[in-house]
Amino acid sequence: MNYLNVQKQMQLTTDIKNCTKCGLYKLMPTGCKPVPGIGPLTATIMVVPEALGKDESILEEPLVGQCGQLFNKIIKEAGLNREDLFIANVVRCRPTETGAKNRPPSKDEINACKGWLFEEITVVKPRIIVAMGKVAVSTLIPGLKKTFALGPMCGQLYTVDYTSAKIVPMMHPSWLLQYGKNELQKTIDEFKMVKVLSETK
To answer: Which residues of 41-67 are buried (b: 16+ CB within 10 A; e: fewer)?
Structure first.
C-alpha cells in the first residue's frame, strides 16, 4: 500500500471531521462530526450514496440503518463483501432542518462538500465508482440536465475526465425501499456486473 496515500487519507479524514464549509455540521448529533469515507484504500470499487441519514449521523458511518441493511443484502447477493468496498457520501453530514426528517442536500451544500469526495477518489483510485441516486450521479457525471431520468442510466458505464474509473449509476437503497422493491434483482445484477468489471485486468 502506498504510504503517501495512507498519510493523505489520514489527513483527509481529520479535515473532513473538522469541516465547517456549510452549516450542516451544526445539525450533527452532539459529539458527532462530519463523516469521511470508509474502507480499504486498495478498494477497486467505490460506492457513493447521497448524504447521511439519522443512523449514519449518530454512528458516523455511511450506509447503515435500514438503507444499509438493504445495501448489505444487495451486495451479498452479488457476491461482494462490504469490507472490500470504499463507501463515501457526496455530503458528509445529515441534511435536515429540524433534526427529525431527512431532506435532499441543497446545491450549495453539495458544492461545499463534493471536493472531499473527489480528493478521496484521487487517493483510492478505484476501477469502478457506483453512484447511488440522482445526487451522486449528477455530482459524478458533469453536464447532465437538471431533469435527467436516472432509470435509463442505471447499470450503464460512463467515462469522465477527472478519473480513469468508470461511473455506474444505480438507484439509491432509500428509493428501492420506498418504491422499487420490484427492481431489487436489477440492482443486484448491476452489482454483479460491477464485480466482474472490477476484477478484469
So the answer is: bebbbbbbbbbbbbbbbbebbbbbbeb
| Entry pTM | 0.94
Q: Please report the sign of the dihedral spanned by the C-alpha atoms of residue 180, residue 106, residue 72, residue 169.
A: positive
> Cα separation of 57 and 181, whole Å?
25
Please give the angle made by the CA atoms of 19, 25 and 26, to the nearest 5 degrees: 135
- Position 54, amino acid: K
The answer to whether the beta carbons of residues 121 and 114 sit under 8 Å apart is no
Contact 3, 111 (CB under 8 A): no
Domain annotation for the chain: domains and CATH numbers: 3-199 (3.40.470.10)
Residue linked to cell 447521511: 52
What average pLDDT is seen over the chain?
A: 93
pLDDT computed for residue 82 by the predictor:
97
